[in-house]
Hints:
This protein is of the alpha+beta class. It has helices at 8-49, 54-57, 81-87, 104-124, and strands spanning 59-64, 71-76, 89-90, 96-97.
Amino acid sequence: MKTTIARLDTAIKNILDDYADDVRDGVLEATKEAAKVGAKAVNANAQSTFYGRKYGRSWTSKVVPGRMLTHGVIYSRIPGLPHLLEHGHAKRGGGRVAGRPHIAPIEKQLAEEYAKAVKQKVHGST
Length: 126
């Protein structure tokens, strides 16, 4: 595509805008996929670690897209319980119940995989 010197700034701006849109779409796609995978992994880990399937099935995810920042949120529909089960809690008659880490290992693994996916989307969208 040929362009004149007078319109060079507009051409460069259009190219950079297209690239930014491609990167934003790629990051959004990677975030959605990571959130789904993370929710399924925590679901499976919670069901194998704790008795009863209600807690395991309570895990879900959502993506909150923004102009400059996209959040992927993995959460349980039973508020407060994940913290108590992950970190332990006090017993009614004294003493403590030990925590069973079932979220932290998945969080660490998912963060690494997400970083790789975003890097691939950004470098692959040129």
